[in-house]
């Protein structure tokens, strides 16, 4: 093999998202590391082309790593070029497990970048907007998957508005509501708008003492990637069963009082988004019910404090149809599971949720809230709503 051919092979291995690393190994690269190269020698046998020169090739697979971040298996040089952190070896010690992690004031076009607060996992006091600009790693990327692996910001004000801390995501083709509070475990899918960057920004008010922190994984999804969400779906669930929770859903009440001095809400104001559920092979309908063992698991409108357990989480507390004008979920063309009769409405609100089933496809649940989740907004007033936790189950054809 000529030296020219070497150069071609090396040039073909793109740095950021190559599915393989291929490089000419003259031993310098590995020799700079501290571990014993003898262990790698057997991997090289059969690949030696000239004395001390061989071709090293391995897949750029994920390498599970710390509890908080995974790496990608790259050559040491590739990782250094990305300003990544090497945490160990992979591919029989020929590669390095490389974590790319960024914080305030950064930009990335590297797949699987982690965006954290400064000093993560330690808490962050706050300050000016902490921003990362995400550019596509190549022209065939259509969507950014944003995993809020750890996302704890200050609660909204008592009326559901993110006034102290806020997570904003702009620049994409999917409208993302402003988020705050507890959103650990939520995943967002944001379509790239052509070649435009997506900007993720956390604004945290320094003057408000709060142990805020975040660790966000940013996965770039190719247009033909099986994991990509249908266009415009802010959230996307797969699997025959699952639990869908609204943003900042939690088991404790918001302790901040609303403008009318009643217990504040966890439900966020100004939501308007769609949650898509992949129709699994052989399944035709989807059933929703409020998550069990929690009477607050569907508290979307009304006065939670004024209601007791004969109302909370029961059919009595459930409201639907034209009575739902401010905050509600939309489920197209549903049938009431208990009666097998059409529900006659697609809007659901109130303080309880009666199980419904629908065969309308695609499977989408819309979430709408208005600008004020406080007691002054409407009659009956909204007091201390938590939002929703809905369990879904697909049923066979
Ligand atoms: C790391 O990868 C494993 C296996 O794919 C996955 O289960 C886990 O959630 C990942 N962890 C992080 C922090 O990305
Ligand atoms: C790595 O850091 C250097 C110096 O700060 C910077 O010039 C370069 O753009 C960074 N590269 C990447 C891929 O972030
Ligand atoms: C980014 O990495 C994920 C796995 O970690 C992979 O599924 C996806 O295809 C990669 N994106 C690109 C554009 O290669």
UniProtKB/TrEMBL annotation:
Signal peptide: 1-18
Classification via Pfam families: CUB_animal
Claim: Signal is one of the keywords in the record: yes
Matches recorded under SUPFAM superfamilies: Spermadhesin, CUB domain (SSF49854)
Keyword annotations of the record: Disulfide bond, Signal
Ranges for domain CUB: 104-221
This protein's name: CUB domain-containing protein
Organism: Euphydryas editha (Edith's checkerspot)
Lineage of producing organism: Eukaryota, Metazoa, Ecdysozoa, Arthropoda, Hexapoda
